[in-house]
Amino acid sequence: MKTYRANVMICAGTACVSNHSLDVRKAFEEEIKKRDLEDEVQVVTTGCNGFCGAGPIVVIQPDGIFYQFLKPKDVPYLVEEHLLKGRPVKKLMYVPPEEEVPIPKMNDINFFSGQMLVALRNRGMIDPEKIDDYIARDGYSALVKVLTTKTPDEVIEEIKASALRGRGGGGFPAGIKWETCKRAEGEPKYVICNADEGDPGAFMDRSIIEGDPHSVLEGMAIGAYAIGVSQGYIYVRMEYPLAIERFKIALKQAREYGLLGKNILDTGFDFDVDIRRGAGAFVCGESTALMASVEGRIGEPRAKYIHTVEHGLWNRPTCLNNVETWANVPVIILQGAEWFTSIGTGDVSENPWGGSKGTKVFSLAGKINNTGLVEVPMGITLRKLVYDVGGGIPKGRKFKAVQTGGPSGGFIPEELLDLQVDFEQLDAAGSIMGSGGMVIMDESNCMVSMALYFIEFLVGESCGKCTPCREGLRQLRYFLKKIINGEGTVEDLEEIEIISETMQKASLCGLGKSAPNPVLSTLKYFRDEYIAHIEQKKCPAGSCRALIKYEINESCIGCLLCKKQCPENAISGESKKLHIIDQDKCTNCGVCFSVCPVDSIDIISGGEIVYHHEALEVENDKETSV
Amino acid sequence: MTEVNAARDTKPETVQMTINGNSIETEKGKTVLEAARENDIEIPTLCYHPGLESIGACRLCLVEVAKSSRPGRKNLVTSCLFPVENGLIVDTQSNVVHQHRKIVLKLLIARVPDSDLIRQLATEYGVHESRYVEREDADKCIMCGICVRVCDAMGANALVTLSHGLDKYVDVPNKNACIGCLACALSCPTNAIPFEEVGDKRRIWGKEFDLIRCEVTGEPIGTPEQIEHIAKRSDLPIDSFLKSANARLKENAAESVGVKL
C-alpha cells in the first residue's frame, strides 16, 4: 500500500458538501498536481466530522491540523504554506468564541477533545466509499471473530453483558431483544436497521451512514449471525440521497469481498441486506409503522401487545435496531463487554436497565456556538456538553433550556444543567433521550412559543390513526395559540394538563404518548412564563408578537436606518432626531430592532421593557466579573 | 388454510381470568373485549367490528389490566386488541378508565359536533359542555376506519385513508374501483358517508351507478358492478342475484309447499 507524506482529509458530509467542499477538493487536486506533489500528498474525501457549523472542513494528517470555512481560493496559499513550506496557516484555523488565539490541532479543540468516539470511530479518518479504508481500521474483524470463534449464543451473551441499549430512543437492551427474537417461533426471521431519522435538526444516523456505512453493515451481519437471520433491511428516508448512495456502494463492495451473500467467509453463514426507502413520514420511525411501510402498506403503527420480535415484518420474528446501535456492535465484539460497561453510568451487573453504558451521539442545534454532531460518554453533564463541547451560547446570552429527544422530548431548564445525560436522568427530568437531538435555547426564546413550535410539528406528523394523539394535538395547539395571543386563561392550563394525560396514557404508539412532553415539561419548569402570558399579557422573552410592542428610547441617534427598513412605513423622524414608531401601523416584525446600530429599540411587553441589548450586556459584565 | 383447519380440529385452550371481580372462563386467542361481551359486560367501542380485523384506533374500549402475579401494576390497554391470558385481572369501569374514555369522547365531540351517536355517548360519560375548539367544516367522520376495512374485506378495496395527522381523510382515489355496494356507508357508525338512491340510480363517492331493482318486488338490489363482483366471488351465476331476499324467500317457501307463484 502506497504511503504519503501528508493526507488532506476533506469532509464530504451533507453539510460540508452543500457548502461546496467538493469544489475545495477539486482546488486541492489541481494545486497539488500543479506543484507536482501527487506522489507526496493524497487527497481523501471523508464522512461528516460533526463540526458542521464550521464547514467546509479540512484536516491535514498526520499532524491533525484543522482548517475551517475553506473556500477554493484559500487552497493555493494553504498548499504553498502548509504542504510545501511546513507552516500551518493560522488565519484559516479555528478560534474559540470570544478568544483571539487560533487552535491548530483538531484534538486540542474543545469540541473534539471532549468527545469519545465509538459509533463514530472512523469519523474523518476514512473514505466511506472505500471498503479497504474501513478494513484498514479493523473493519470486519469483529465479523470474522464471531464467525470463526464464537457461537451465536456467545455473541448474544456478549451483547447482553455489554448492556447496550437501543440508541433510537427507546433504550431497550439490544441483547435481550436479540435473544427474544432468536427464541421466537417462526422462520424466516429478519433484522432491520432503522435509519428513518425524522427529528428536526437531528442527523446522527445520516452522518454515520454517510461517513462509515460498513460499520452499520458489519453490526447487522453480527446480529444476523447471532439471531439466525439471512435477510436484513435498512429503512432509509428518501431525503438522505447521499446516505443511500454510500450504503449502496458499501453493499456492493461487501458482496464483492464475500462479506455479504451466500456462505460468508466459507463459514456457511448466509446474509444479505436490501435497502428500503421511506417517503419521509415522521411516524415511520416507529417500529410497527416502519415494518408496515417495508411491507408496502400505509405506515401506521399498531398496538404492540404482541411484540415485533415475535410477530414483526410479514408476521415473522424481527429484530429492529437503530443505525447507532448497530454501529456500536462491532466495537463491543472487538473490545469486549467489560470495556464497554466501563464507560457510562449506573450498575448493569444485575440488569441492563440499571444504567446507561457506552457513548451517545448527539446533534447540537439552536443557540449554541458549536453546532454539529458529537459523541460523548453517557453520564456527561449537560453543562459540559453545552459549555465545553458546545462552546457555550452565542452573543454572550444566557442559557435558558435545552430540548432533548426530538419534537416529542422535553425541555430541561438551567437549574438542571448539572444533570448527567443518560436514559434514567433525562426520563426523571420529564424528557427523553430520544435519538439524541438537542436544541439549545437562550433567554430570547419564549417557552410557550417553543412548545407550540414542537406541537405544530407533531400535528403535521401524527399519523392520524388514534383519537388521543390526532385530536389531542389539535386541542393543545388551540390552547397554546390562545395563550401566545394573550387570550389564554388559567383554566386553559388545566385543560392542557388533562388532555396531555389522556394522550400519554391512551395513545396507540410512542409518538402519541410522548407528544405532550414539550408542553408538560415547559409547564413544569416555566409555568411562570405561561402565567405571565395569561395574567399580565406579557411575554418575558419578548418574542410573542401579539404581546409585545417596539419603542425607540432616548439613546436614538437619528440615523434613519430603521425608518428606511420598516416595511410598513411606521417609523417617523428626521436625521439626527429621535425617531418614533407609530403603534397603529407597526406589525411587530422586528426589523427595526435588528438593524438599529445603537440598540435604541426596546421590546415592551406587559407594560415593561422585557428585553434589550444593553441590559443584557450589563448583566453579562456582572457575571464575568464575579 | 391448514393452520385454520388445524385450529378447528384441536380443542381450544381455556383461559381463566377476572373481569370486574367476576371470574370467567374463555378461550385462548380471544381478546379481552370478546371475552367481556360473551359475558354481557359492555365496553363501548367505535372502531371495533366483529367481522373485521381490529386496529385500536378510537381508544374508547380502554380497560385496565393487571396480572395476578403483580396485581398492583395496572396498565391501560385497548380491549379490542389485548389478548386474554390466564390470571388476567380486568377492570372495565375504574375511575381511570372512565376519565380517559370521557376525554376521548370530548375530543371526538369537538371533531364531529353534529354526530348524534358521539353526543349521546359523551352525555353518558358526563360530558355536557366543552371548551375545546370544534373542527371547522366538520363532517361526521371519526376516522374509525371501518369503511376502509369493510371495503377491503368485501374485495373491492377501493377506499383508503389519505394524508395524515389532522388532514387525514377517507376517499376513493380510483373511482373505477368502487362498485357502489354501500358496505362502507351502511357500516359507518356515525353515518358519515352520504349516498342516495333515486329511481334507477345510486350515487356514492361522487360516482353514479345504475341501480338494479328486484324483478319481483321492485326493491333495490345493487349496482351491476356490485352484482358482478359478488357473483364472481361466490362463483354463482349472475341470475341468482337479480331477486331481492324477500322475493327469494317467498319463492323458496312456495316451492317447498308445491305452489307455483
Task: Please tell me the overall pLDDT of chain A.
Answer: 91
Radius of gyration of chain B: 23 Å
Uncertain runs of chain B are none
- Helical content class of chain A: 25-40%
Euclidean distance between termini CA atoms of chain A: 57 Å
Number of strands of chain B: 12
Tell me the strand percentage band of chain B. 15-25%
The outline of chain B comes out as globular
Q: CATH superfamily membership of the largest domain in chain A, which one?
A: NADH-ubiquinone oxidoreductase 51kDa subunit
Strand content of chain A: 15-25%
Which stretches of chain A are low in confidence, meaning pLDDT under 50 for 5 or more residues running? 614-626
- The percent of residues in helical segments of chain B reads 25-40%
Spatial order of the strands forming the largest sheet of chain B: 2-1-5-3-4
Give me the CATH fold name of the largest domain in chain A: Rossmann fold
Describe what is shown at a glance:
With 626 residues, chain A is α/β, with parallel strands linked by helices.
Present the secondary structure layout.
The complex is a heterodimer of chains A (626) and B (261).
Chain A: E1 6-11, H1 14-18, H2 21-34, E2 41-46, E3 58-61, E4 65-67, H3 75-84, H4 110-113, H5 131-136, H6 141-149, H7 152-162, H8 174-183, E5 190-195, H9 204-211, H10 213-227, E6 231-237, H11 241-256, E7 261-264, E8 269-278, H12 287-294, E9 318-322, H13 323-335, H14 337-341, E10 344-346, E11 355-357, E12 359-366, E13 372-377, H15 382-389, E14 399-404, E15 410-413, H16 423-428, E16 437-442, H17 447-461, H18 467-484, H19 490-506, H20 510-514, H21 517-525, H22 527-535, E17 548-552, H23 561-565, E18 571-572, E19 580-581, H24 591-595, E20 601-605, E21 608-611, H25 613-625
Parallel strand pairs in A: 1-2, 5-6, 5-9, 6-8, 12-16
Antiparallel strand pairs in A: 1-3, 3-4, 7-8, 10-11, 12-13, 14-15, 14-16, 17-20, 18-19, 20-21
Helix pairs in contact in A: 6-10, 6-13, 7-8, 7-10, 9-10, 9-11, 10-13, 17-18, 18-19, 21-22
Chain B: H1 2-9, E1 14-19, E2 22-27, H2 32-38, E3 62-67, E4 70-78, E5 88-91, H3 95-111, H4 116-124, H5 146-154, E6 160-162, E7 169-171, H6 183-187, E8 195-198, E9 201-204, E10 207-210, E11 212-213, E12 220-222, H7 224-234, H8 245-256
Helix pairs in contact in B: 3-4
